[in-house]
From TrEMBL, chains A, B:
Protein name per UniProt: Ribose operon repressor RbsR
UniProt-listed InterPro entries: HTH_LacI, LacI/GalR-like_sensor, Lambda_DNA-bd_dom_sf, Peripla_BP_I
Family matches, as Gene3D superfamilies: 3.40.50.2300, lambda repressor-like DNA-binding domains (1.10.260.40)
Organism this protein belongs to: Thermoclostridium stercorarium (strain ATCC 35414 / DSM 8532 / NCIMB 11754)
Pfam short name (any one): LacI
UniProt cross-references to PANTHER family, sorted A to Z: HTH-TYPE TRANSCRIPTIONAL REGULATOR GALS, LACI-RELATED TRANSCRIPTIONAL REPRESSOR
SMART domains to which the protein is assigned, alphabetical: HTH_LACI
Keywords annotated in UniProt: DNA-binding, Transcription, Transcription regulation
GO molecular function, one term: transcription cis-regulatory region binding
Length: 340, 340
DNA sequence: CTGAAAGCGCTTACAG
DNA sequence: CTGAAAGCGCTTACAG
């Protein structure tokens, strides 16, 4: 039924070995033979079977992408597809394929990781999640399976990872708000389970210190990182009688909610309160007011992540690599106070 | 190095065939033998190699998901990941894996489709894109490769597909706007390349006709389906001196832009102009004003899409199946005119 | 209930 | 420059 290397061999009057070598463009096969073989392949509409090839070569050219916590809204965040695009782009160039698995709970995660690492289908894993204390990480290290984390993990010197410098991101944004005249700056959406929010908070504190602004813990509001609770977080603050002059939300989606809440209380953005987000979602520039944010270059995060993974797969000498992707502060109306 | 079925066979003093059968839980193997074999597998930490299994069984349990037009913003739309979640959910239950490919241009698409269909890795294809006149479709039909399209294709009776009833969606939304007192209703974002927008427009026209409202072509504005041009489309209309009492945008993201434009011109939503979108993105409920939209149940689109594909792969007798996923009209403030 | 053997479609030392 | 043979790690008729 399906034409195999043996069919081609017969038709070309050569051995299967020779066909295989022609396919691999081995220098040991004469040009003439190659030409003949390729012509026949064309005629007979031959395509190599990658499964058979994988078995023989003991290499599948497939990596797995693991998306954690898909029951939460995280997976719906615009930067996830963007990361995936980056991964796909470099993977394609390197003739790698991408197996994607989304995981809801820890139990499922254990099963899927086990499957992906033991069944021989996948050569390495790209993990999209910077959850603190993920038990998968020590497991992967133990079995020495190549993997890269997108997002800074807690044990940053013992794994491969790629991320932005989120401390710097938090710092820059806070400094920006200080520069436009804010002193009491709220920080919304810290989630202890996500390094990224902790890092951004760290940068926030650094900037305050550097500018001799006393830290007010009341201005820091915990919450889910990516969720529709920006409104609630802001409300919590206002209900306590606190009206900050600036607000930094850990994600644009949170910032949108916060702005809505401020508006309802009759507070104008940016005149009364300057508001900024992070991650620069597509809508941010079209929001009212256009939202100051940080472009994290999600595409590059994915692209670089794949590169690191490929390195880890191919490299003889094991090492732990990291990559820091640059970001851009994007100032828009939502933080443009008069006089600044 | 890696433990194989032969290692287990030796350790258990049986033949590889028996181990294989135990693995498949064949009734032809005694309970006692199975127990012994499983115990040894446990001890030796054995996992079957799915590549070898795939080759022997001639079946990989892998499907491909093809995402078209990833250079456009489409891929970043929140409903794509949601569809993927639906696919993954059912695939997981059926022990299928998902290979994902995103495609930018037609040239790349041809290569990837060719690869996915000929290399033997993938048993069927799920195509995310309802682009009109996609050359891939006739090709897949010709080679009789199982596939399902998410989105109604032009040749709807000759392929498997799953979609909402977009005519009905357009109709219901328009009727809703008419009910709240709108008569001159603009329709933004028709893109002839996407069936979904054409269908929604069709429903719009049906509703007008049914209510004896004359069709005004000037109110229909073409544009990219999913893009940040809602502002521009609305502006185009207003610049022509047209101020509709209602606006339907082909996507929530477009509606956000349209609202912004209206606001800048001093028009209030919904008091002066009622505005509605489609697809119910996460932000819609938190927008100011909360946006009337339609929940298309993207998760179900993906889940059902996989079911159809699995059917197509397994079924002896070939047929063309379709599935229509229900939707929900979600009325929010943006269309709540006074008195309605 | 179990085994020996052939086969899935390739690749690759080994030999010439 | 080319081929015969073994092997990748499974499954599955065939035979008993």
């Amino acid at each position: 039924m399906r034409v195999t290397i043996n069919d081609i061999a017969k038709a070309a009057n050569v051995s299967p070995s020779t066909v295989s070598r022609a396919l691999a463009d081995s220098p040991r096969i004469s040009k003439a033979t190659k030409r003949k073989i390729f012509k026949i392949m064309e005629e007979m509409n031959y395509y190599p079977n990658v499964i058979a090839r994988s078995l023989a070569r003991k290499s599948t050219n497939i990596i797995g992408v693991l998306v954690m916590g898909t029951t939460e809204k995280a997976f719906q965040h615009p930067f996830f597809p963007e990361i995936l695009r980056g991964v796909a782009s470099v993977a394609y160039k390197n003739e790698y394929k991408i197996l994607i698995s989304s995981v809801t709970d820890m139990d499922e995660q254990r099963k899927i990781v086990n499957d992906l690492t033991q069944s021989g289908i996948t050569e390495g894993l790209l993990i999209l999640s910077s959850g603190v204390n993920d038990p998968t990480i020590p497991y992967l290290k133990e079995i020495q399976f190549p993997f890269v984390i997108v997002g800074r993990p807690d044990n940053e010197n013992e794994v491969n990872w790629v991320d932005n410098d989120n401390v710097s991101i938090g710092y820059q944004m806070t400094r920006h708000l200080i520069e436009v005249g804010c002193t009491d700056i709220a920080f919304l959406g810290v989630d202890k389970k996500f390094m990224v929010t902790l890092d951004r908070l760290k940068g926030y504190k650094m900037a305050l210190k550097e500018n001799n602004i006393p830290l007010n813990e009341d201005l820091i509001v915990e919450g889910k990182f990516v969720d529709d609770t920006g409104y609630d977080l802001m409300k919590k603050l206002l209900d306590r009688g606190i009206v900050p002059s600036g607000v930094i939300a850990c994600d644009d989606l949170l910032a949108f909610g916060a702005i809505k809440c401020l508006n309802e209380k009759g507070l104008r953005v940016p005149e009364d309160v300057a508001v900024a987000g992070f991650n620069n979602v597509p809508l941010s520039s079209y929001f009212t007011p256009p939202l100051t944010s940080v472009d994290i270059n999600a595409f590059s995060l994915g692209a670089k992540g794949f590169e690191l993974l490929l390195n880890s797969i191919k490299s003889e000498v094991k090492s732990f690599n990291r990559a820091i992707i640059p970001f851009q502060l994007i100032v828009r109306e939502s933080t443009m106070k008069k006089g600044s």
